[in-house]
Amino acid sequence: MRLRGFALLAASIAGSFAIITLSSFLAPLLGLSWSIILPVVTAIGISAVLFPLGRRFSPRPAVGIIRSLVNPLIAVAVAAALIGTLVKSGLGAPDAISQSYDNVFHLNLVQFILDGRDASPLHMTLAVPEATSQFYPNTWHATAALVVQLTGASVELATGSMIFATACVVWPVAVLFFASPLVGQKLRHHLAVAVVASGFTAFPYMLLSWGVLYPNLLSTALIPIALGFLGAVLRTNTAGTRIAPFSMWVGLAGALMASAAAHPNALFGFAALGLPLVIASLPSFLRAAGSTGAQVLRASAALLPFIAIGALWLRLGTGDNGREFEQNPVKAAISALTNSPLLDQRAWFLTVLVLGGVFITMWCKEHRWLVGSYLVAVGLYVVASGLSGPVRTAITGLWYNDAHRLAALIAIAAVPLAAITLARLTDMVAAGARSAEISERLPQAKLAVFAGAMIAVVLVGAAFGLRGGSMNLMVEKLHELHQIDEESRLLSTNEIELMREAKDILPEDAVIAGNPWNGSALAYTFADRSVVFPHLGGQYGKDALQIAKNLKMGSLKACDAANRHGVTHVLDMGELYSVRGDAMRHLDYPGLTDVSGSPVLTPILTEGDATLYELTGCA
User: Fold this and answer.
1) What are phi and psi of 81, to 5 degrees?
2) Which one of 16, 404, 470, 557 is CB 3.0 to 4.6 Å from 347, fit for a cystine?
3) Domain for residue 485, yes or no?
């Protein structure tokens, strides 16, 4: 496609995830097992089509690939280092697991793909074992499964690598591609974006401390790539390098596919943030077309996708989480505008940068649509966080009315605003360093070094300023959620050790029953053995429910059900349940809770409060 600079990096990332998703759909249709061969072959096939088209419709760029990537890679490296240190502090270890409800599903789904060698999003029946088809957006999990296959790493380590790759590579590349045309094309402008991109608690850190929302983490990180190509389509210029219309449209389509496949609500996030850009750019976009027919074609291409997304917005819906986050719209608006959503401490330094960007943008009458996108994102957050009832569901139901997911959208629009302020400060420092007074005192060779040093001081100071109380609070929450010790909420060190020992002694066809709410569901991942209840909120059949209610009593119906399921062992992990909100569902498993003394179970392995039993009393 003859892309260069940030556009090359962004399209490579979005294209990779789009190809992984496409190949996961194709594999079962072709009767093939999931492996890295499928994405590679799919990529070769797509490239065979795009290569001649790209050469036909895309002019050769004036700058070479290597030269175009120097400054972008420096900026991405800076952002990766800043974000990576925070994520590392939060996780503590690369294979640390989130002690949360959703993570049971996310870890086990990767194992489910590995076991079945099937990554089709239409076949994700982990939580509905008796179903033949179940859709779930699993680009994250399909990619993590490839990591396990390629490296031999554990599922939890592959998940950790995905976290770092998404937060430290995908997000910086995406937001730099989107923001750079708005902020400036010099290296100092790119570095301003890189520094600011690390300073929003709402993304990527919040989605790692709530849920945990891995699919939304990936989909939200990809949205700026789609917005960047949308800007290229409407303004015919991005990242300092002219992009051919053919490459713009292909990049936009690929980025939309990748982000929506990671989680469908990314499509609506893209529409919400991109509509102000379309409205602001449409007049000039149409004038550039020339003839009336070409204008109609351009108007249709620009508006019809948003009309279609709007129609879907009105027709589709998800479940309501029922939670009121900030109690009232005023409090929600304050937390959004002070860049501290769902936190008790305000991010004042970052807020000054964002509001400065709003002022500069409005004063200079350039990129004013960006302020509109920012206000739309803030408005969606206020609705989800400060309201309740049918109005909230009609507007933000596609995000489950979840304020955390919508807070992440604020960061996408706010990063370029804050970076504009910081970039203008570096411009002022650069101009001051080259003033006549200083030029007279320093030789020309040292003048550039002095200017660079002063700009570095500004950027380093901003990086430290962004790590204030709100960011420290977020990192502490992240660390608390991923801390593993003998008292951990979902899985303790003893329980993990027991499951790893069980992997060595259990036959490969062993089937484990256990109350999933005490962490035993993760025996599927850690012990690599089938479990009856692989998720805390699954939909299970009559036999499974009979096992859940009566197995430890050894009733005839429970034993028959266990035999039909092939149950060979029971795992009791004590009282360490992951209970939140209305999660009294852990009480639905009396036949698998406190099973010591059961006439049908014989203990074979114990670590701390966790014990593995063999089912010996059901003939």
Assistant:
1) -65, -45
2) 470
3) no
